[in-house]
Amino acid sequence: MELLNRLVSLFAMPQQPIDESFIAGSRHFCMMPFVHIHITQYGTVTPCCQTPWQENQAFGNINTQTIAEIWQGKAIQDFRSTMRQDLPDARCARCYGKEEAGLYSLRKSANTDYLHHIQRVNQVSVPYSPVYFDVRFSNFCNFRCRICGPWSSSKWFNEAEELGLSGKGLRLSTAINDEPAFFKDFEQYIGSVEEIYFAGGEPLLMEQHYTLLDLLLAHRKTDVLLRYNTNFSTFSYKGKSIFDYWKKFTNVFICASLDGTDKRGEYQRKEQVWSEVVKHIQTIRAECPYIDFMIAPTVNVFSAFHLPDFHREWVEKGWIDVSEFFPSVLEEPKMYNIKIFPTALKAKLAIKYREHIQWVAAQTTTDQRAKTLILSEFESCVQFMLQEDFSSEIESFKQTTFKLDAMRNESVVEVFPELKPLLD
């Protein structure tokens, strides 16, 4: 059977070896299955963080299989074959949708960042190891962000039950049942690993995150890229300072999930204290000035109108370069998608973003490529918004928002007066 599978994969290969021009012109090909392994907070292994975590969409489960068994298994081999033929896969729908709107996708990012591993694509057998690990150790989090839910935040559990949201019925979802066995299994890949992505939940509050860093240091593997998506709320855990760790690594990249300033930020990222955010950006610039830092706001119904002001404020205060702010549109839940805006609000937002694009274009920068991407992304946010009419979701937005406002003793209209036409 194994021989048959290999023969099927072989005959599915293109006649010509895949090269850089093939990847650049591809519509569906992605480097991810050739370099990357993504473990969800439920233990399932899926193509990437953009794909569903359900068992029937997965390559396997880390609690019943080793990394090697999944990495060399039929499910991921079939997926690689699909990629080699530049065929679509339903699990990749988010990237396809973003690209149709002109937005930058994870697929395009992976095809750029991991092009140096192109030789892997033409190998039907798998003599290579994953070099990029994305392990969501759990959904443990100290925030209750408006656009989130129990699947990514343990703090959301009580409110989710009251709202009837599903998070598999668990307050805390953990990826790994036998952590010593997992870390022993992972240890054999340390020599070849190039990048580890930490997200959550809140990764800086996860014991497993520090265990993994200790393991890398024990093997003197300090050249690996450590990439974080963090709510930027804390830099310490059980007496451990993350700065003491980061100073030992040569390549650290932090994406801070911040969607607005002051009360706007605190409303969206419940439990956030804005004065602490300000203190933290000043600390990180002083303690670890060499760290790559970026604000990664989510463009959603709450944040949309304020993001240009937020971007401009932090640049003018000297806390970030203009290129260190990358907006990413929210697609799900649909009730928070900016496509729900009425026509008049869409027109106002389009004008605001295009004015901001002119401001960004006039700024000097240390990273022209990143600035070009940001300009494109702001314009693509407008195109994305105008692409469809999701106004049927307005009632769901209003009902959920008002329920949460009552539960949290908050008022959306007081914090976001520009949304009043949406709420009337």
Structure overview:
The strands form four sheets. The chain has an eight-stranded mixed beta sheet with strand order 3-2-1-4-6-7-10-12. The protein is globular, with a radius of gyration of 22 Å. The chain has helices spanning 2-12, 20-25, 32-35, 67-71, 74-84, 93-100, 106-113, 157-163, 179-187, 207-218, 242-246, 262-268, 274-287, 307-316, 343-361, 368-387, 394-408, 412-415, 420-423, and strands at 36-39, 44-46, 60-61, 132-135, 144-145, 195-198, 225-230, 236-237, 240-241, 252-256, 269-270, 292-295, 298-299, 328-329. The chain is of the alpha/beta class. Helix 15 runs antiparallel to helix 16 (368-387). The relative contact order is 0.09.
Keywords:
eight-stranded mixed beta sheet; alpha/beta; 424 residues
Short description:
Helix content is 42%, strand content 10%. It is of the alpha/beta class.
Low-confidence stretches: 1-14
Major beta sheet summary: 8 strands, mixed
- Name the helicity range: 40-55%
Alpha-beta content class = alpha/beta
Shape estimate: globular
| Distinct helical segment count | 19
Strand content range: 5-15%
Q: Give the CA-CA distance, first to last residue.
A: 63 Å
Q: pLDDT average, as an integer?
A: 92
- Order of neighbouring strands in the sheet with most strands: 3-2-1-4-6-7-10-12
Rounded to the nearest angstrom, the radius of gyration is 22 Å
Give the total of beta strands. Answer: 14
